Amino acid sequence: MQQKKSLDNPRFYYISFAIIVVARLLLNAVIPLMDKTEARYANIARIMAETGNWVTPQIDNGIPFWAKPPLSTWLSAISIKLLGVNEFAVRFPSFVISILLLLLIRPIAKRLNIKLIIPAFILFTVPEFLLHVGVVSTDMTLLLSMTCIMIAFWEGINDGRSYWKYLFFVAIGVGFLAKGPIVIVLTAPPIFVWAVLFGNFKKIFTAFPWILGILLVLIIAVPWYYLAEQKTPGFLDYFFVGEHYKRFFDSSWKGDKYGFPKIQPLGIIWVFLLGLTIPWLIFVIFKIVKLKKLIFKDQWLVYLLFWIIWTPIFFTTSKSLIHTYVLPTSVPIALFIATFWNDIKNKKAYVYTAMILPALSVILIFISFIPGVFSKFSNTDKYVLQNQKVKPLYYLGEKTYSSQFYSNGKVISIDEENLSKKSLTKEKFNILINKRDSNIVKNYNFLTKTGEGKKSLIYTTK
């Protein structure tokens, strides 16, 4: 009985939420940037902050990065300007976005007559969301724009205040700067289906300022796309055709400039969805099965339901995807749970299960103080670069993104032919060599190993 009362007391959720937030912020500071994805985006932001080129994100100095629009890079670059070149700085915008999301769902919580801490607690215990509160990527900016679109639309229809109606279009424009037209693909269909089911088309067309709104979208989004194409011709074709069609629907696509298609089993998105939203998605499923007639008569619940399921439906036939594609479902799942919060009978099971990942985060903080744990098991070149004397730094073959970030861009790629030529000079330098290529070191007796990480070895000239 005492446990049940504690779970009905908002204080429990305030304390739990505070612990989760502090733990996540500490982890953002101590966990190194991992290759490839996170270190890549962090290094792109570092280059932007260093060069002052705010139009063209660069994957390396002078090499444009066409895969994504610049919003997340802008935010991380600004954070670097304010906080320096470090892990916490590049991850901080993701945390700020997570707080902005709570502000967005505040009117919904008020409408549901529950405290904001409830959907906040649920959202921060969704595994995929908690992970992204501390990850450098474009996914959080996409989530922010999508959430803003969906909530502004709902409030614009039901609240009547004009700022929601304009915010709806602002969010679309921001979405184009966050990740491109995918923001329309992932938000328009659930709104359309909801409107069809409840006959709300007339209300939609009369409630929103469509002409001014579309103009607002263009004013926000078009200038950057125009400047990006002018600076680096070919961007628009690669971005719209390659990244937004072939990337998702052609697993044999060879045009990816920055990686390779992630070939996954058909329908894997549903496995990601279930595994990375536990335990809350289970409640959603049980509730739909138990109260399907009631739910499908309720406009709000149907709206949330289509918001949840459309993203995985869209990606069901795609074989080129990663787990982050389920992130857009986290907010509507949290809102769906919050809608039924006061009626949940087995709340203890859901809450305590949801606290497992945050508890592991706290444990990970303590583990981080054990010497050598991160350096031995982290897929990064951060630790192998520590305590190295200032010399020219090379990487044999393709340099890693983490080596670029942690060397402040000083690392230079070098091939075996040019490394052999170095043996004829008296130049003093350090060189990173991937462990898979370490067997070739025996050909260079002028090198001495001075450090070792999980993926790379570092040598210096004798």
UniProtKB/TrEMBL annotation:
Pfam families associated with the record: PMT (PF02366)
Cellular compartments annotated: Cell membrane
GO biological process: lipopolysaccharide biosynthetic process; protein O-linked glycosylation; response to iron(III) ion
Occurrences of domain ArnT-like N-terminal (ranges): 34-239
UniProt KW keywords: Cell membrane, Glycosyltransferase, Membrane, Transferase, Transmembrane, Transmembrane helix
Lipid bilayer topology: Multi-pass membrane protein
Transmembrane segments: 12-31, 88-109, 166-197, 204-226, 267-288, 300-316, 322-342, 349-374
A GO term from the CC aspect: plasma membrane
GO molecular function: mannosyltransferase activity; pentosyltransferase activity
InterPro entries membership: ArnT-like_N, LipidA_mod_glycosyltrf_83
Name of the protein described by the UniProt record: 4-amino-4-deoxy-L-arabinose transferase
Annotated source species: Halpernia frigidisoli
